[in-house]
């Protein structure tokens, strides 16, 4: 009977290279956010709400003492302007970073879907805390001013939340606090004492957000060109990317991509995509060559790449397509090896016959040939597969081999002393596989408090890295669980008497009581 095909889903579960694109997408989102969104929010945006209100109030009331604390007036003309700006930023993001993918036919791309999700998460973590902070910072001391403030800002917050939802952006930060929640916290019925307690609790929450707020307001690792003077080339590029749209709603704010210098993050991203291509298909095949050429072109034009999010998304898609092809080829190769191993096992007669004096030598040669085949696969696959993928594949194949061998032993009607000795010897030979699981290991990286406080992005994990904890024996246990069942079988067959085997049954947890009793009944001690 032909051996069963390896289900494709097993291959996809084992080959997790595609997951390496996720940190790449997150890094790219960080680049876009730092170079595009943060400058827009800094430039006459919600971050400057306090300064704007103070300046407008001082203009309206010239007699105000410059040293005295300024109380917001609740004037809609003052308070609505920053919210209009943030709404325009949101519409700009939708037009330049979301809609353009739909127009260019990338809407169904898994890379684009990951990009959107990561961007929404970044907005929640970085932008929404700024909005919440700005709203809370402006709570007036005067009760009459508070009523006007609540009425105006409540309407503005509701309108902004609707705009964010329409633009597929969140109005909830990564702590689950919505803009509308802020308005519900500062209901007009609370007293001055309750207000003081509220602000203390809010300050505690905002302190835990400090890292995100600092990242959104300033990033010293990135150099920007003049934000107030966008070049004609940048404006033309932004216009072309929006599919011919002329700016966005609220275009009088003049939102465009800011001029910016080439960043280290962009180069790091390209290096990582290139590494993924090399590890996925290191041999000089046309597919990997075309992928390498594409990355080389992006590196050469990195100045334009910084202003062109779509080019990065296309690079993600190229790498994803390459990995998909590599998955298909590896799936076919894995199925071939699975069938080869089980074809060889199928040539074994019943073990009670295969281990008699006449056939034991040929049986030994056959099993040694199977183990040599695994060693040949080790040489061929370690040179081209990421470690984690290699370990999953070799572990699965060994598991299927051990399952077949164990089933053969349990099916033996009789195990005499001579057969038992030969059987133990052969199974011990088959269990010596630690060398197959000896791979380069990498300890998990740990971010330092300094790196967290400075806002520096954590280094990407090594591609295909494997934890160093435990060494080859731990990797065998993790990726080849049936190995323990085989070694327990060898130990059980080494017991010298029926009484000894019966008393030790509870120690062999890989077998059921019925299976162990069957072995005891069939053995000749």
Automatic annotation (TrEMBL):
GO CC terms, sorted: cytoplasm; RZZ complex
Biased composition (Low complexity): 227-240
Disordered, as annotated region: 220-245
Matches recorded under Gene3D superfamilies: 1.10.357.150
PANTHER family, sorted: CENTROMERE/KINETOCHORE PROTEIN ZW10, CENTROMERE_KINETOCHORE PROTEIN ZW10 HOMOLOG
GO terms of biological process kind: endoplasmic reticulum to Golgi vesicle-mediated transport; mitotic spindle assembly checkpoint signaling
First and last residue of the signal peptide: none
Protein name as it appears in the record: Uncharacterized protein
